Amino acid sequence: MTALAMLGACGGADSSTTTPAESGKSQNSALSAEVEAARAEVTTFATPTAGFDASTMRGKTVYYIPITLKAESFQIVSKSLSEAFQGVGVTVQACDGGANPSTAAACLNQALAAHAAGVIADALPVGLAANAFAALRTAKIPVLIVNQLRPAGQTDDKLLAYEPGNAIQMQNMAAKWIAADSGGSAKILTQEFTDSPNTIAYLEDHAFKTLQSACGGCQNTVNKVSSANFSLIPSSTSSALLRNPDTNYLWTEFDTILQPTMAGVQQAGFLSKVKGVSTNGLLGGLQLLRAKNYLYADVAAHYNFQAWANADSIMRMALGLDVPADTAIPLRVFDRTNIDQVKNLDAAGEQSGEWFGPTTYKDVYTKLWSGA
């Protein structure tokens, strides 16, 4: 339930009355407070409480297979997995799924042939390479699927588990940021990424409903884009803006399409007319924020923490242990009010996880894996 919905649910016997204007101010105040809290450093992490002895994992190999290794977020996770596993002597073998069924299947078959201790499949739908996933199950090689919504009726077991990540939470927070920043009256163009049922669902089944609840006066126009038509995104964006000349917020679903979207904004002559909003919180986006160039907010996912949490889960699966249910991956809102708090706005800072605050979770996981 959103902050606005919770306010609407509160009530009691009181002779006082609240005008619609007063109610709106109260709701916007609560929403602004929620967004402000999301701007703060992340200092608490949802780590497991039960430790285990990871020493028997030494010398083994875990495969990391993202939908594509060309995306910066997956590169961060891949390197962070190597960092996490180094202390327990596990080798990470990254294989690019290539956003292609045959390429993804080849990666999964490679893990099968190598007798991998486990596979982490990132944003890789089972249906993309169903036979290869089935072969891993037959061979009793555990698979952890991350950044994918758990299918209806699917239950985790020792050989297949899901960690959905925080894409829904990121998109919901982007909607709330727009609602709070606009005072509930934004005219939005949303770049919906149609590459998979999940990327569509993040917006249509979740974030757009959040926007409607939090921002009843907002107008939202959707422009559907995909990586398959990457080169067409600038012209598509420009055309959508020209058809909707009152647009004052442009919501890009992911940083992956931020640059071509911005190119379209420039083509249409809207660079000074719209406030850019995106999610992922990758280096390029935060550099635009720092430079006060187009982007006003970027909701960031903590990919370094994700990698450590994924490493923990796949080792538990490999050892026949229960996996923590849906580990919460932190997010942080970066906008023009707090971007100067980021000290190392470079690739090393992005990789380390320090943009989010203390990286104490690394010590926590290291201790957990020692059996403590």
UniProtKB/TrEMBL annotation:
Domain Periplasmic binding protein stretches: 67-313
Keywords: Signal
Region ranges (Disordered): 1-32
Pfam families reported in the protein's UniProt record: Peripla_BP_4
Gene Ontology MF: a single term: carbohydrate binding
Compartments (UniProt record): Cell envelope
GO annotation, cellular component aspect: cell envelope
Superkingdom of the organism of origin: Bacteria
InterPro entries documented for this protein: Peripla_BP_I, SBP_2_dom
Biased composition (Polar residues): 14-31
Keyword NAD belongs to the record: no
Record PANTHER family: D-ALLOSE-BINDING PERIPLASMIC PROTEIN-RELATED
UniProt record similarity statement: Belongs to the bacterial solute-binding protein 2 family.
Protein's recorded name: Periplasmic binding protein domain-containing protein
